[in-house]
Each structure stands twice: as C-alpha cells, then as structure tokens.
C-alpha cells in the first residue's frame, strides 16, 4: 500500500501532493493527486474524490479547476486519481482513439480479454484507493467521503456513489454521461470491456441505478447548455426522467452558455465542494 511522493507544493496554506504506488487492482503503477487543506495540520479532515473524464490524467483537475482555494476554506481534502491503468503491457485501443483504452477506463471492472487483466477501475476507486490514501495521508478520514467527477468521471462518480451509498455522503457531477448504455461513447467502451451481452451494462448506468436504489443520498448535477456533447453523448434529460420515475430527488442545474471545458468546472467547483462539505459536516 506504500506510496512514493513524486512532488509537493504549497497552495492556499495547504499542500498539493502527487503520489505513485503499485496497484494490485490494476496490476500496474498508478499516480494520484491529493490536496491537503491547512486544517489537516491540526485535525483529521474529510475527503472529496474527483474522477476526471476521457483523455485526462490526475493533473487536469489539479491544474485547471482552481479547487484548492475553496477546499482550503472548507477544510476538505481532494483526491484525484488517474482515469485508467497505464504502463507497459496495459492494452490500448488498437485504433488509437480517445474514447477507449488508456485515459478511458470508464470506472468499471472489465470482464473481457485483454482488458480484464488491468481495467478494474471500479475496484480501484472504491476499495484500493481509499486505503492507499489513508496510508499516505493519515490526516484524511476516509470514513467521511463524498465523490464528484466530470463527463466520464461524472458517470463514474454517480454510478459508484449509487452503488455504495454507505461509503459516500453525497455525489455530484459536471456534464456526466448519465446513460452510457444509450450513447456512442458508452456503447463502444462497454462492448469491449464488458462484452456484447447488454444486460451486464446496466450495472454501470446511472439512469438504471437510480431506479434500483434503496438508499438515497443528495445528488447535484451541473450541465452546460452550450456543451457540444449534450445531445449525442450526455443526454441529461434522461437522468431527470429517471429521477422522477424512481422518486429519487436530484438537483440538475442547466447552466446557460457553458460548454464542456474546465472553464465550466472552474466556474462551479466551489459550489460543488460546498455542497459536499455541508453533507460531510465540514462546515
């Protein structure tokens, strides 16, 4: 479980870390980022996990979202893992496309060869990563956790949260893929990772999981109206329909004029962290 600290930098009175460790779940070396707020010097702090989207690594959110200032004010740690396994021997899309393979783990447990040997991102995020973080940063109380993410990572945050409501106090997402079983990104990845039996895909679909939920947690979704992926890939209206049908209240905010970029995330990350901090009891 031991992690090697690759870098640390002072930021808003806290510390931004980058760690590397050997993952048993993914059978490769993995990098993850941790922001420790200044309060961690005196007491344990809760944690918000952030899952990034297609093509991203742990660095995109850390360098572009501007989340550290709000995290420092709220007294919450942020953990940002990579988006997929990487390294020698880890398979990639043979066509080199961005929406499957390296950078596109989809936060699921692959069952099909050659992906199943490494692509176990669900187990990594839910089970292995919290223990690795606890060992590297004992100031973090991993029993007080929330989860958020963007695009593919929004899909990951919502599905992981819905499947593990006792582990996360609240879930949120920016521009999430809410129905991967009904969009090109999801259909392509799920066919390769999970196989052609579409009945197995439902286990990683937010709209399906909302209808199956037995315990409800607060959910916040922000979606830009100028997002060029909205109509074909994200289909936000489907999660609103599923929420209503399931009697599972969620808050969906359609943000006028915002696109799919980190400018959008930077504009609303403070409100997401404050949302989670309230439910974590950090404020």
Please provide a brief summary of the model.
The protein is an alpha/beta fold and 283 residues long. It has helices at residues 59-64, 68-74, 121-136, 152-163, 184-194, 206-212, 230-234, 236-246, 262-280; strands at 3-11, 14-23, 28-36, 45-51, 77-81, 140-149, 171-174, 219-224, 251-255.
User: What is the domain tally?
Assistant: 1
Gross morphology is globular
CATH class group: Alpha Beta
Estimated structural class: alpha/beta
Beta content: 15-25%
Number of strands: 9
Low-confidence stretches: none
CATH 4th-level superfamily: Alpha/Beta hydrolase fold, catalytic domain
Number of helices: 9
Q: Kindly identify the CATH topology.
A: Rossmann fold
Largest sheet: 6 strands, mixed
Strand arrangement, major sheet: 1-2-3-5-4-6
- CATH architectural name: 3-Layer(aba) Sandwich
Order of helices and strands: EEEEHHEHEHEHHEHHEH
The helix content is 25-40%
Commentary on this structure:
With 283 residues, the chain is α/β, with parallel strands linked by helices. It has a single domain (3-280), classed as Rossmann fold (3-Layer(aba) Sandwich). It is 33% helix and 23% strand. It contains nine helices and nine strands. The protein has helices at 59-64, 68-74, 121-136, 152-163, 184-194, 206-212, 230-234, 236-246, 262-280; strands spanning 3-11, 14-23, 28-36, 45-51, 77-81, 140-149, 171-174, 219-224, 251-255. It has a six-stranded mixed β-sheet with strand order 1-2-3-5-4-6, with helices on both faces. β1 (3-11) and β2 (14-23) form a beta hairpin. α6 packs parallel to α8 (236-246). It is globular and about 50 Å long.
């Amino acid at each position: 479980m031991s992690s090697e600290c690759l870098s640390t930098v002072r930021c808003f009175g806290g510390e931004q870390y980058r760690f590397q460790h050997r993952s048993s779940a993914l059978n490769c070396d993995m990098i993850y980022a941790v922001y420790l707020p200044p309060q961690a010097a005196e007491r344990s702090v809760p944690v918000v996990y952030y899952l990034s989207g297609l093509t991203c690594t742990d660095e995109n959110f850390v360098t572009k979202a501007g989340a550290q200032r709000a995290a420092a004010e709220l007294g919450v740690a942020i953990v940002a893992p990579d988006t997929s396994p990487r390294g020698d021997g880890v398979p990639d899309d043979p066509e080199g496309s961005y929406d499957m393979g390296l950078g596109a783990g989809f936060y699921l447990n692959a069952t099909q060869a050659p992906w199943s040997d490494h692509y176990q991102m669900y187990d990594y995020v839910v089970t292995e990563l919290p223990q690795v973080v606890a060992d590297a940063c004992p100031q973090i109380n991993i029993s007080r956790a929330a989860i958020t993410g963007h695009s593919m990572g929004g899909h990951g945050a919502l599905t992981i949260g819905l499947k593990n409501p006792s582990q996360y106090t609240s879930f949120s997402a920016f521009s999430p893929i809410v129905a991967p079983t009904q969009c090109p990104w999801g259909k392509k990845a799920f066919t390769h990772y999970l196989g052609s039996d579409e009945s197995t895909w439902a286990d990683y679909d937010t709209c399906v999981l909302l209808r199956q939920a037995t315990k409800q947690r607060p959910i916040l979704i922000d979606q830009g109206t100028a997002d060029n992926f909205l109509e074909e890939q994200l289909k936000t209206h489907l999660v609103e329909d599923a929420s209503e049908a399931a009697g599972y209240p969620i808050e969906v905010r359609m943000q006028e004029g915002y696109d799919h970029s980190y400018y959008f995330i930077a504009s609303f990350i403070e409100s997401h962290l404050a949302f989670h901090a309230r439910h974590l009891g950090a404020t």
